[in-house]
Design goal:
The chain is 45% helix and 18% strand. By secondary structure, the chain is of the alpha/beta class. The chain has two domains: 145 residues, Rossmann fold (3-Layer(aba) Sandwich); 156 residues, Lactate dehydrogenase/glycoside hydrolase, family 4, C-terminal (L-2-Hydroxyisocaproate Dehydrogenase, Chain A, domain 2). Bound molecules: nicotinamide-adenine-dinucleotide and (2S)-2-hydroxybutanedioic acid.
Length: 334
């Protein structure tokens, strides 16, 4: 009561507006390197009224800690597979950073053995406890685990391709940063589509469509393309065995989940690149700019305009991407 009385009038108005939009967000893998800062950022999102934290370890502590933050949402912690159904029950948005990260020398595909079954089991539980949720998968290898989740949801008869997303936002965040720094402009003012998938050559930054325009020689363009494709490895090497990108990923995951919530909440014109089921190329999952709305994906905005260099990148990406997708489909159906 005292807390409300001491708020300025404008905040009281904001307070009542956010009360009318009640969204439950569940973070699966909430105790991890990404999960904790991501949950902190979601605790600050005004569209979230229930923040449900699921992990196989430490969620009582993480949830208690976050619950002391004075934002307008309730935090609940759930630990272990027995509690996963309650964690997911009725969620509007599920964000999944559960699973192991890379160590130096590993590819994202090397994570498949451990992470494929983690995502499969979470998707199974989603199919019964929150089949209409918008599901955003961060866990690697994104190119392969998103098709696994799709197959699991299909088997359960609840698959809606408009509600399943692979999170490739970090590729956009990095591209904006590198371009902004090179042009000496605020990275937040840079827009750039990054299409394809989320590993190595499947990451296709469409530098020709950067706004403001990226100014560089062909050699600069090639170097920047490779830097964006290898940026995850740059972090893995710098962390020297202590994992992969966590803070920049939490920022990117919170931005993507925030965009899903803004779409759910009826805001128009919310666009994010995301790895979704797609018929834009002959890879059945592909990241392009997606317009988000009340039902998740409102419209796939398709391939951006590309120059010959970018078309070659696409040609190179597709066989790898198709192989990654097939691996996921085979795993889910074995
Ligand atoms: P981490 O090891 O710090 O955290 C992972 C968390 O998942 C841990 O708390 C762990 O207990 C939990 N977990 C493990 N098995 C689980 C299960 N069955 N159910 C629920 N939770 C489970 O790892 P991290 O650095 O947070 O990375 C997580 C994943 O995100 C990795 O696969 C990593 O490669 C991926 N990642 C993706 C992107 C991207 O751009 N999409 C970026 C960075 C990292
Ligand atoms: C990233 O791009 O940082 C993530 O996919 C983590 C990794 O393994 O590189």
């Amino acid at each position: 009561m005292l807390k409300q009385l001491s708020r300025p009038v404008i905040s009281l108005r904001n307070f009542s507006t956010s009360r009318s939009n009640k969204y439950k967000v569940t973070v699966c893998g909430a105790s991890g390197g990404i999960g904790q800062p991501l949950s902190l950022l979601m605790k600050q999102n005004k569209l979230v009224t229930t923040l449900s934290l699921y992990d196989i370890v430490h969620t009582p502590g993480v949830a208690t800690d976050l619950s002391h933050i004075d934002t307008n949402s309730t935090v609940c912690g759930f630990m272990g597979p027995d509690q996963m159904p309650d964690a997911l029950d009725g969620a509007d948005v599920v964000v999944i950073p559960a699973g192991v990260p890379r160590k130096p020398g590993m590819t994202r595909d090397d994570l498949f053995k451990t992470n494929a079954s983690i995502v499969r089991d979470i998707a199974k539980c989603i199919s019964t406890k929150c089949p209409k949720a918008l599901v955003a998968i961060i866990t690697n290898p994104v190119n392969t685990v998103v098709p696994i989740a799709a197959e699991v949801l299909k088997k359960a008869g609840v698959y809606d391709p408009k509600r399943l997303f692979g999170v490739s936002t970090l590729d956009i965040v990095r591209s904006r940063t590198f371009i902004g720094n090179s042009l000496n402009v605020d990275p937040q003012k840079v827009t750039i589509p990054v299409i394809g998938g989320h590993s190595g050559v499947t990451i296709i930054p469409v530098l020709s469509q950067s706004q403001p325009a990226y100014k560089g020689s062909q050699s600069d363009i090639e170097k920047l393309t490779v830097r964006i494709q290898d940026a995850g490895t740059e972090v893995v090497k710098a962390k020297a065995g202590a994992g992969s990108a966590t803070l920049s990923m939490a920022y990117s995951g919170a931005r993507f989940a925030g965009s899903l919530l803004r779409g759910l909440n009826g805001e128009s014109g919310v666009v994010e690149c995301s790895y979704v089921e797609s018929c834009v190329t002959d890879a059945t999952f592909f990241s392009t700019p997606i317009c988000l709305g009340k039902n998740g994906q409102e419209e796939n905005l398709g391939l951006p305009k590309m120059n010959d260099f970018e078309k070659k990148l696409l040609e190179k990406a597709l066989p790898e991407l198709k192989k990654n997708i097939q691996k996921g489909v085979d795993f889910a159906n074995k």
